[in-house]
Sequence to fold (90 residues):
Amino acid sequence: METLLLSREEIARRAREWYDKHIRSQVETPENIGRMVVIDVETGEFGVDDLGFDAATQLRIKNPHARLFGLRIGYKVAATLGGVMERTTP
Fold:
C-alpha cells in the first residue's frame, strides 16, 4: 500500500467522515457510550475498547503504517483536562 503524507487535520476529517457515514450506526449503543473507537482512516477498519489501546494495537498488527484516529463514542471530545465532556446528540 502506498504511504500518503496526511496532515493531522486531514486524518481527523477522514476519521470523522468514516465514523459519520459507516461506523456510528454500528457502535453507538448504550453499552459502548464512553468507550473509544479507533479508526484506520485509509481503510475504514475500526476497533472498540475502553481506552483505545487494544483497538489501536490490533489495527497496527494488520497495518503497521496505518493512520489511526480515536474518538470517544457518544462524546464531542476524547478526553479533557479538568473540563467537562459534552455528550453528542444522535
Notes: Residues 8-72 form one domain. The first helix runs from residue 8 to 27. The chain has two helices and three strands. The chain has one domain: 8-72.
